[in-house]
Specification:
119 residues, alpha+beta, two-stranded antiparallel ribbon, flat
């Protein structure tokens, strides 16, 4: 593999039935909680379709690989009982310090303003 060849990784696995059942159990246990809080999440979107091609003598046995170097954009956002607070997009790997940076720059002041407003 030379430096011009993109690195490849295996595709991400789907949730198992056990993981799905645990999620439903958690939701049922927390049904009566006070949900007057802020929720945030991030999702990654591929900007262009994957153009990596792989040739094989046995294509039925070949596992499709996804390029790690594909062009992505990540969208982070948060919502609350008061509605949308903020959205933020970025193109780098999320880690703990960067997540704290996103929260400090995009969530804290906006959430304070939003919760000071009357409904």
């Amino acid at each position: 593999m030379n430096s011009a060849t993109p690195s490849l990784s295996r595709a991400t696995r789907m949730l198992t039935m056990r993981q799905k059942q645990r999620g439903v159990q958690w939701a049922k246990q927390h049904h009566d909680n006070d949900w007057n809080r802020i929720f945030s999440n991030e999702s990654c979107f591929q900007l262009f379709r994957n153009t990596v091609r792989c040739w094989s003598k046995n294509p039925k046995k070949e596992m499709k690989r996804i390029s790690k170097n594909r062009r992505n954009i990540v969208l982070w956002g948060d919502i609350s009982i008061k509605g949308k607070i903020r959205f933020y997009s970025f193109r780098r790997t999320m880690n703990g310090p960067y997540y704290v940076h996103i929260l400090q720059k995009n969530l804290i002041d906006e959430a304070r303003r939003k919760f000071r407003q009357r409904s």
